[in-house]
Write a structure and sequence with these properties.
This protein is α+β, with helices and mostly antiparallel strands. The protein contains eight helices and 18 strands. 16% of the residues are buried.
Protein backbone atom coordinates (compact mmCIF):
# COMPACT_ATOMS: atom_id res chain seq x y z
CA UNK A 1 0.00 0.00 0.00
CA UNK A 2 1.38 3.47 -0.98
CA UNK A 3 1.02 6.31 1.47
CA UNK A 4 2.39 9.04 -0.85
CA UNK A 5 3.94 9.30 -4.34
CA UNK A 6 7.50 8.15 -4.85
CA UNK A 7 8.52 11.47 -6.42
CA UNK A 8 7.26 13.46 -3.43
CA UNK A 9 9.20 11.36 -0.97
CA UNK A 10 12.32 11.48 -3.09
CA UNK A 11 12.30 15.30 -3.21
CA UNK A 12 11.66 15.51 0.53
CA UNK A 13 14.44 12.98 1.12
CA UNK A 14 16.87 15.06 -0.90
CA UNK A 15 16.07 18.20 1.13
CA UNK A 16 16.65 16.28 4.37
CA UNK A 17 19.89 14.98 2.94
CA UNK A 18 21.24 18.45 2.10
CA UNK A 19 20.14 19.88 5.47
CA UNK A 20 21.76 17.06 7.40
CA UNK A 21 24.90 17.31 5.32
CA UNK A 22 25.16 20.98 6.25
CA UNK A 23 24.27 20.66 9.93
CA UNK A 24 25.61 17.31 11.01
CA UNK A 25 28.65 16.61 8.87
CA UNK A 26 29.38 12.90 8.73
CA UNK A 27 26.44 12.00 10.95
CA UNK A 28 23.96 12.73 8.16
CA UNK A 29 24.79 9.47 6.37
CA UNK A 30 23.48 7.18 9.11
CA UNK A 31 20.31 9.23 9.51
CA UNK A 32 19.59 9.18 5.80
CA UNK A 33 20.06 5.40 5.76
CA UNK A 34 17.45 5.12 8.52
CA UNK A 35 14.99 7.11 6.44
CA UNK A 36 15.74 4.85 3.51
CA UNK A 37 14.98 1.71 5.54
CA UNK A 38 11.75 3.34 6.75
CA UNK A 39 10.78 3.98 3.13
CA UNK A 40 11.29 0.32 2.17
CA UNK A 41 9.25 -0.79 5.18
CA UNK A 42 6.29 1.47 4.37
CA UNK A 43 6.23 1.25 0.58
CA UNK A 44 8.31 -1.74 -0.40
CA UNK A 45 9.76 0.17 -3.37
CA UNK A 46 13.52 0.70 -3.20
CA UNK A 47 14.66 4.10 -4.40
CA UNK A 48 18.29 4.94 -5.13
CA UNK A 49 19.41 7.87 -2.99
CA UNK A 50 22.83 7.99 -4.66
CA UNK A 51 24.64 7.74 -1.33
CA UNK A 52 28.26 6.97 -2.13
CA UNK A 53 31.57 7.50 -0.44
CA UNK A 54 32.34 10.38 -2.80
CA UNK A 55 29.05 12.12 -2.06
CA UNK A 56 29.58 11.72 1.67
CA UNK A 57 32.90 13.52 1.41
CA UNK A 58 31.40 16.52 -0.35
CA UNK A 59 31.10 19.75 1.54
CA UNK A 60 27.55 20.72 2.48
CA UNK A 61 28.18 24.44 2.04
CA UNK A 62 25.81 26.46 -0.07
CA UNK A 63 26.17 29.86 -1.70
CA UNK A 64 23.33 32.02 -3.00
CA UNK A 65 23.82 33.71 -6.37
CA UNK A 66 21.30 36.17 -7.78
CA UNK A 67 20.69 36.96 -11.44
CA UNK A 68 18.03 39.65 -11.57
CA UNK A 69 15.17 38.39 -9.44
CA UNK A 70 16.21 34.76 -9.84
CA UNK A 71 18.16 33.17 -7.02
CA UNK A 72 20.36 30.12 -7.45
CA UNK A 73 21.84 28.10 -4.60
CA UNK A 74 25.17 26.43 -5.29
CA UNK A 75 25.66 23.27 -3.22
CA UNK A 76 28.93 21.61 -2.24
CA UNK A 77 31.13 24.55 -3.22
CA UNK A 78 33.88 26.34 -1.35
CA UNK A 79 32.67 29.62 0.08
CA UNK A 80 35.98 31.40 -0.37
CA UNK A 81 39.11 30.91 -2.43
CA UNK A 82 42.20 32.98 -1.69
CA UNK A 83 42.68 33.64 -5.41
CA UNK A 84 39.30 35.43 -5.40
CA UNK A 85 40.39 37.97 -2.77
CA UNK A 86 40.81 40.79 -5.27
CA UNK A 87 37.36 40.19 -6.77
CA UNK A 88 35.84 39.85 -3.29
CA UNK A 89 37.27 43.19 -2.15
CA UNK A 90 36.06 45.00 -5.27
CA UNK A 91 32.52 43.70 -4.81
CA UNK A 92 32.24 44.89 -1.20
CA UNK A 93 30.07 47.88 -0.44
CA UNK A 94 31.91 51.04 0.58
CA UNK A 95 31.05 50.70 4.30
CA UNK A 96 32.25 47.07 4.33
CA UNK A 97 35.37 47.99 2.39
CA UNK A 98 36.18 50.73 4.90
CA UNK A 99 35.55 48.34 7.80
CA UNK A 100 37.87 45.73 6.22
CA UNK A 101 40.68 48.27 5.72
CA UNK A 102 40.30 49.53 9.30
CA UNK A 103 40.32 45.98 10.70
CA UNK A 104 43.47 45.03 8.77
CA UNK A 105 45.16 48.29 9.83
CA UNK A 106 44.40 47.72 13.51
CA UNK A 107 45.44 44.05 13.28
CA UNK A 108 48.84 44.93 11.78
CA UNK A 109 49.52 47.50 14.50
CA UNK A 110 48.48 45.05 17.21
CA UNK A 111 50.91 42.45 15.85
CA UNK A 112 53.88 44.85 15.69
CA UNK A 113 53.03 46.38 19.07
CA UNK A 114 53.23 42.89 20.54
CA UNK A 115 56.60 42.32 18.83
CA UNK A 116 57.96 45.53 20.34
CA UNK A 117 56.88 44.46 23.81
CA UNK A 118 58.45 41.03 23.33
CA UNK A 119 61.77 42.69 22.47
CA UNK A 120 62.21 44.17 25.92
CA UNK A 121 63.97 47.55 25.82
CA UNK A 122 64.35 47.50 22.02
CA UNK A 123 62.67 50.93 21.75
CA UNK A 124 64.26 53.81 23.61
CA UNK A 125 61.99 55.72 26.01
CA UNK A 126 59.24 53.08 25.63
CA UNK A 127 57.73 52.46 29.11
CA UNK A 128 58.18 48.76 29.97
CA UNK A 129 54.97 46.76 29.51
CA UNK A 130 53.01 49.71 28.07
CA UNK A 131 51.01 48.22 25.22
CA UNK A 132 49.35 51.61 24.69
CA UNK A 133 52.68 53.31 23.91
CA UNK A 134 53.87 50.36 21.81
CA UNK A 135 50.68 50.44 19.74
CA UNK A 136 50.97 54.11 18.83
CA UNK A 137 54.70 53.75 18.18
CA UNK A 138 53.68 51.08 15.67
CA UNK A 139 51.16 53.50 14.12
CA UNK A 140 53.90 56.10 13.64
CA UNK A 141 56.28 53.52 12.16
CA UNK A 142 53.67 52.08 9.78
CA UNK A 143 52.84 55.56 8.48
CA UNK A 144 56.55 56.56 8.30
CA UNK A 145 55.75 59.95 9.84
CA UNK A 146 58.96 60.14 11.85
CA UNK A 147 59.64 59.62 15.54
CA UNK A 148 59.42 61.82 18.59
CA UNK A 149 61.25 60.88 21.75
CA UNK A 150 60.90 57.10 21.09
CA UNK A 151 63.14 55.39 18.51
CA UNK A 152 64.69 51.93 17.84
CA UNK A 153 67.60 51.30 20.19
CA UNK A 154 68.68 47.70 19.47
CA UNK A 155 69.27 45.50 16.46
CA UNK A 156 65.97 43.73 17.17
CA UNK A 157 64.15 47.07 17.28
CA UNK A 158 65.69 48.23 14.01
CA UNK A 159 64.81 44.90 12.37
CA UNK A 160 61.16 44.99 13.43
CA UNK A 161 60.71 48.65 12.44
CA UNK A 162 62.30 47.95 9.05
CA UNK A 163 59.85 45.12 8.41
CA UNK A 164 56.94 47.29 9.53
CA UNK A 165 57.98 50.18 7.27
CA UNK A 166 58.13 47.81 4.27
CA UNK A 167 54.71 46.41 5.19
CA UNK A 168 53.38 49.95 5.48
CA UNK A 169 54.69 50.96 2.03
CA UNK A 170 53.25 47.87 0.37
CA UNK A 171 49.97 48.26 2.25
CA UNK A 172 49.63 51.92 1.25
CA UNK A 173 50.28 51.02 -2.39
CA UNK A 174 47.70 48.20 -2.27
CA UNK A 175 45.02 50.34 -0.61
CA UNK A 176 45.63 53.19 -3.05
CA UNK A 177 45.27 50.81 -5.99
CA UNK A 178 42.07 49.26 -4.64
CA UNK A 179 40.48 52.65 -3.98
CA UNK A 180 41.46 53.88 -7.46
CA UNK A 181 39.98 50.78 -9.11
CA UNK A 182 36.77 51.06 -7.11
CA UNK A 183 36.36 54.73 -8.10
CA UNK A 184 37.37 54.26 -11.73
CA UNK A 185 35.39 51.08 -12.38
CA UNK A 186 32.76 51.94 -15.04
CA UNK A 187 29.14 51.22 -14.24
CA UNK A 188 26.13 51.25 -16.51
CA UNK A 189 23.19 53.44 -15.59
CA UNK A 190 20.58 51.81 -17.80
CA UNK A 191 16.91 52.03 -16.87
CA UNK A 192 14.60 49.22 -17.95
CA UNK A 193 10.81 49.50 -17.96
CA UNK A 194 9.16 47.75 -15.03
CA UNK A 195 7.06 45.66 -17.41
CA UNK A 196 7.01 44.31 -20.94
CA UNK A 197 3.91 44.58 -23.13
CA UNK A 198 2.39 42.55 -25.95
CA UNK A 199 0.13 44.41 -28.37
CA UNK A 200 -0.23 44.96 -32.13
CA UNK A 201 2.46 47.07 -33.76
CA UNK A 202 2.06 47.74 -37.46
CA UNK A 203 -0.76 45.20 -37.39
CA UNK A 204 1.37 42.35 -35.97
CA UNK A 205 1.50 41.14 -32.33
CA UNK A 206 4.73 42.42 -30.88
CA UNK A 207 6.58 42.05 -27.59
CA UNK A 208 7.95 45.43 -26.46
CA UNK A 209 10.03 46.76 -23.60
CA UNK A 210 11.76 50.08 -22.95
CA UNK A 211 15.35 50.92 -22.11
CA UNK A 212 16.75 54.33 -21.25
CA UNK A 213 20.22 55.79 -20.82
CA UNK A 214 20.43 57.60 -17.48
CA UNK A 215 23.83 59.08 -18.19
CA UNK A 216 23.86 62.63 -19.56
CA UNK A 217 26.08 61.61 -22.45
CA UNK A 218 25.34 59.35 -25.41
CA UNK A 219 26.57 55.76 -25.10
CA UNK A 220 28.26 54.30 -28.18
CA UNK A 221 27.88 50.98 -30.01
CA UNK A 222 24.93 49.79 -27.93
CA UNK A 223 23.94 46.14 -28.34
CA UNK A 224 20.55 44.88 -27.15
CA UNK A 225 19.59 41.28 -26.48
CA UNK A 226 16.45 39.61 -25.15
CA UNK A 227 16.26 35.94 -24.23
CA UNK A 228 13.21 33.88 -23.35
CA UNK A 229 13.37 30.78 -21.18
CA UNK A 230 10.56 28.48 -20.10
CA UNK A 231 9.76 24.92 -19.01
CA UNK A 232 8.99 22.43 -21.77
CA UNK A 233 8.39 18.67 -21.70
CA UNK A 234 10.70 16.33 -23.58
CA UNK A 235 10.58 12.63 -24.41
CA UNK A 236 12.90 11.89 -21.51
CA UNK A 237 11.89 14.45 -18.90
CA UNK A 238 8.60 15.88 -17.68
CA UNK A 239 10.03 19.40 -17.71
CA UNK A 240 13.26 20.91 -19.05
CA UNK A 241 14.31 24.55 -19.07
CA UNK A 242 14.77 25.78 -22.65
CA UNK A 243 16.31 29.05 -23.78
CA UNK A 244 15.38 31.03 -26.89
CA UNK A 245 17.08 34.21 -28.13
CA UNK A 246 14.43 36.62 -29.40
CA UNK A 247 15.05 38.36 -32.71
CA UNK A 248 14.62 42.12 -32.34
CA UNK A 249 13.67 44.57 -35.05
CA UNK A 250 17.02 46.23 -34.32
CA UNK A 251 19.66 45.01 -31.89
CA UNK A 252 22.42 47.59 -32.40
CA UNK A 253 22.64 51.37 -32.21
CA UNK A 254 25.62 53.49 -33.18
CA UNK A 255 24.63 56.02 -30.51
CA UNK A 256 22.32 55.49 -27.54
CA UNK A 257 21.56 58.98 -26.18
CA UNK A 258 18.22 58.68 -24.36
CA UNK A 259 15.41 56.09 -24.51
CA UNK A 260 13.99 53.65 -27.03
CA UNK A 261 11.61 50.71 -27.30
CA UNK A 262 12.88 47.21 -28.15
CA UNK A 263 10.44 45.18 -30.27
CA UNK A 264 10.18 41.48 -31.05
CA UNK A 265 7.64 40.55 -33.72
CA UNK A 266 5.59 37.50 -32.73
CA UNK A 267 5.36 35.62 -36.03
CA UNK A 268 5.52 31.92 -36.91
CA UNK A 269 9.24 31.79 -36.10
CA UNK A 270 8.80 33.29 -32.63
CA UNK A 271 8.72 31.04 -29.53
CA UNK A 272 5.82 33.22 -28.33
CA UNK A 273 3.69 32.47 -31.37
CA UNK A 274 0.20 31.28 -30.43
CA UNK A 275 0.80 31.54 -26.69
CA UNK A 276 -1.59 33.16 -24.20
CA UNK A 277 -1.02 34.60 -20.75
CA UNK A 278 -2.12 31.26 -19.25
CA UNK A 279 0.45 29.43 -21.37
CA UNK A 280 3.18 31.76 -20.12
CA UNK A 281 2.21 31.11 -16.52
CA UNK A 282 1.96 27.33 -16.94
CA UNK A 283 5.42 27.17 -18.51
CA UNK A 284 6.94 29.68 -16.03
CA UNK A 285 8.09 31.87 -18.91
CA UNK A 286 10.66 34.55 -18.15
CA UNK A 287 12.56 37.15 -20.13
CA UNK A 288 16.11 38.38 -19.68
CA UNK A 289 17.06 41.68 -21.32
CA UNK A 290 20.63 42.92 -21.63
CA UNK A 291 22.32 46.10 -22.88
CA UNK A 292 26.04 46.30 -23.60
CA UNK A 293 27.49 49.65 -24.70
CA UNK A 294 30.62 51.77 -24.49
CA UNK A 295 30.92 54.65 -22.06
CA UNK A 296 32.68 57.30 -24.14
CA UNK A 297 34.07 59.13 -21.09
CA UNK A 298 36.11 56.28 -19.59
CA UNK A 299 36.07 54.73 -22.33
CA UNK A 300 35.12 51.17 -21.42
CA UNK A 301 32.32 48.69 -22.14
CA UNK A 302 29.50 48.59 -19.59
CA UNK A 303 26.65 46.13 -19.23
CA UNK A 304 23.29 46.07 -17.51
CA UNK A 305 20.53 43.46 -17.44
CA UNK A 306 17.11 42.80 -15.97
CA UNK A 307 14.53 40.04 -16.04
CA UNK A 308 10.76 39.80 -16.37
CA UNK A 309 8.46 37.04 -15.16
CA UNK A 310 5.17 36.13 -16.83
CA UNK A 311 3.41 38.45 -14.35
CA UNK A 312 5.42 41.38 -15.72
CA UNK A 313 4.22 40.85 -19.29
CA UNK A 314 1.08 42.92 -19.90
CA UNK A 315 -1.27 41.95 -22.74
CA UNK A 316 -3.07 44.37 -25.06
CA UNK A 317 -1.21 47.37 -23.65
CA UNK A 318 1.40 49.69 -25.12
CA UNK A 319 3.86 52.23 -23.80
CA UNK A 320 2.76 55.85 -23.77
CA UNK A 321 4.55 58.33 -25.99
CA UNK A 322 7.42 60.08 -24.23
CA UNK A 323 8.90 62.06 -27.15
CA UNK A 324 7.72 65.55 -28.06
CA UNK A 325 9.25 68.06 -30.46
CA UNK A 326 9.68 71.67 -29.42
CA UNK A 327 9.27 74.71 -31.65
CA UNK A 328 13.03 75.03 -32.12
CA UNK A 329 13.33 71.43 -33.37
CA UNK A 330 14.65 69.81 -30.18
CA UNK A 331 13.24 66.53 -28.87
CA UNK A 332 12.17 66.27 -25.24
CA UNK A 333 12.02 62.88 -23.51
CA UNK A 334 9.88 62.47 -20.39
CA UNK A 335 11.74 59.99 -18.18
CA UNK A 336 8.93 60.17 -15.64
CA UNK A 337 6.71 58.17 -18.02
CA UNK A 338 9.18 55.45 -19.00
CA UNK A 339 7.11 52.79 -17.22
CA UNK A 340 3.62 54.12 -18.10
CA UNK A 341 1.36 52.05 -20.36
CA UNK A 342 -2.10 52.46 -21.87
CA UNK A 343 -4.72 50.30 -23.57
CA UNK A 344 -3.59 49.28 -27.02
CA UNK A 345 -6.82 50.48 -28.62
CA UNK A 346 -6.77 53.95 -27.04
Amino acid sequence: MRFFPTETYFLAQRRIEYWLRDRCGRCWSALVQRHYQLWITLVGDPVSLDITISSMSKSGRSISVRAGRLEFVKLNVAKFNFRDSYHFILTLTWPRFAALVLAVYILINLVFASLYLLGGRCIAELPPGSFYEAFFFSVETLATVGYGHMYPDTFYGHLVTTVEIVVGMFGMAAITGLIFVRFSRPTARILFSKCAVISPFDGVPTLMLRVANQRHIAMAEAEFRVMLFRDEPTKEEASVRRFYPLKLQFDRMIAFPVALTLRHVIDESSPLYGMTSEDLENSDTRLMASVVCIDTVVPAPVQSATDYSYDDILWNRRFVEIYTETADGRLTVDYGRIHDTEEAGS
